[in-house]
Amino acid sequence: MELLFIQSQEHSQLPQAELKAVSESEGIKGNIKRITNGLILLENIDKKNIDNYYKTFVKRLAYTHEIHEIIKIFNLKDLEENILKINWKKIINKTFAVRAKRFETNIDTPYIERKVGSLILKTINNKDNIKVKLNKPNTIIRIVIYKNKVYLAIEKYKLNKKHFQEIKPHKRPFFHPGSMSPKLARCMVNLSRVKENDLLLDPFCGTGGILIEAGFIGCKVIGSDINWKMKNGTKINLDYYKISDYKIFNVDIRELKMYEKVDSVVTDPPYGISTSTGDINRDKIFEEFLSNIYNNMKDDAYLCMASPHYIDLHTIIKKIGFKILEQYPIKMHRSLTRIITVIKKDI
Ligand SMILES: C[S@@+](CC[C@H](N)C(=O)[O-])C[C@H]1O[C@@H](n2cnc3c(N)ncnc32)[C@H](O)[C@@H]1O
Predict the structure, then answer these.
(1) Residue 223 Cα, ligand 1 centroid: separation in angstroms?
(2) How far is the CA of 162 from the centre of ligand 1 (A)?
(3) Which of 95, 126, 158 marks a domain boundary?
(4) Which of 2, 24, 144, 145 has the most CB atoms around its CB within 10 Å?
(5) What is the pLDDT of residue 179?
(6) CATH number for position 88
(7) Of 104, 126, 158, the domain-final residue
(8) What secondary structure, in 3-state letters, does the chain show?
(9) Residue ranges making up the domain that contains 148
(10) Same domain, 148 and 175
């Protein structure tokens, strides 16, 4: 079977990368095919486990808005013929609505919705008792049109984005400037390929934004920070969101030594003016961090970090014995691009 993902268009690569990472870490096999920015097809999915897969995607993905099950893909010129051929009685549960969305075409979507709705009704007898219901229908038929291609699907899930609104840094009980958006934090956690019950470390935990997101997907989390106010603040925030499996330490990255090696490291080291680096030179902190974290990670652990574009991570990473797997630039403003990098030990 095939699934259609409607994703955020705020970044051209991260939503797809996040989907790939979650599929990999959760053992969901399928081909990811990009249709265009914000539209992804996941092909050859095992139907047997589909309900678990939906649950996983809905729980974890930050940059996906909707997930649909494909009924058929065809050319727009063959719309009528294809709609009339489908056995809608098998698909529709008493009431339905058609919702259309377009990508890179000017097609009149309300017209398409009306047209497809009436074509569907043509295939149905009165005794089938199937009706159009625009408000809260049992079945939503989703038509996505990209250029001249039609992706006809049944709507399965709309992902609830309330979590990411309600958990914004200024709404947490402990606030300090410099915490990244919860969506990006969740995406970075996902890029680190963690699963429920894995141990995730953020050694520059600040107010705990990354740890909160990892806690929400069921990871055991460890945070540390050179600043004791941040350590205490992270504790306040984790308690507030009822994340209980955590340990927080007040440690300089140069002295961090874990009793247990971690499954993943996700972090946003200090580089802006609003965060202090202790007495370490700003350029040196990345080298100090990466060389010290190496021995605290399991051999197959992933590390996902943010850094400013002007830090030459390639040289540092190679020197320490890591390898770069993925990199995604995020333009912050004219003079700053943030780079999200995923690395592993090069062994
Ligand atoms: C960009 S902030 C992290 C923000 C965090 N992701 C959040 O959600 O609030 C970087 C943090 O690194 C801490 N820090 C700076 N130098 C450090 C060092 N040498 N060792 C450990 N932590 C350090 C700062 O106190 C600061 O809280």
Answers:
(1) 10
(2) 27
(3) 158
(4) 144
(5) 92
(6) 3.30.2130.30
(7) 158
(8) CCEEEEECCCCCCHHHHHHHHHHHHCCCCCEEEEEECCEEEEECCCHHHHHHHHHHHHHHCCCEEEEEEEEEEEEHHHHHHHHHHCCHHHHCCCEEEEEEEEECCCCCHHHHHHHHHHHHHHCCCHHHCCEECCCCCCEEEEEEEECCEEEEEEEEEECCCHHHHHCCHHHCCCCCCCCCCHHHHHHHHHHCCCCCCCEEEECCCCCCHHHHHHHHCCCEEEEECCCHHHHHHHHHHHHHCCCCCEEEECCCHHHCCCCCCEEEEEECCCCCCCCCECECCCCHHHHHHHHHHHHHEEEEEEEEEEEECCCCHHHHHHHHCEEEEEEEEEEEECCEEEEEEEEEECC
(9) 3-158
(10) no
Residue whose CB lies within 8 A of the most ligand 1 atoms, among 241, 248, 275, for a mutation test: 275
CA–centroid distance, residue 278 to ligand 1 (Å): 9
If asked whether residues 219 and 91 sit together in one domain, one would say: no
Indicate which residue's Cα is closest to atom 16 of ligand 1.
277
What's the confidence (pLDDT) of residue 274? Answer: 45
- Judge if 7 and 103 occupy the same domain: yes
**Site residues for ligand 1, CB cut-off 6 Å:** 178-180, 204, 206-210, 225-227, 230, 252-253, 268, 270, 275-278, 280
Specify whether 88 is located in the same domain as 186: no
CA of 5 to the centre of ligand 1 (A): 35
- Whether 42 and 85 map to the same domain: the answer is yes
Q: What's the number of domains the chain is made of?
A: 2
In this predicted structure, what is the pLDDT of residue 272? 54
How far is ligand 1, taken at its centre, from the CA of residue 26, in Å? 30
Are both 172 and 59 inside the same structural domain? no
User: Which residue among 170, 204, 251, 286 has the greatest number of ligand 1 atoms within 8 angstroms of its CB, and so is best to mutate?
Assistant: 204
In a shared domain, residues 138 and 208 = no
Residue 277 is predicted with a pLDDT of 59
What CATH code is carried by the domain that includes residue 173?
Answer: 3.40.50.150
Q: Which atom of ligand 1 is least distant from the CA of 272? A: 1
CA 134–ligand 1 middle distance (angstroms): 50
pLDDT along the chain (347 residues), means of 10: 97 98 97 98 96 98 98 98 97 97 96 97 89 96 97 96 93 94 98 98 98 98 97 98 97 93 97 58 84 97 96 93 98 93 97
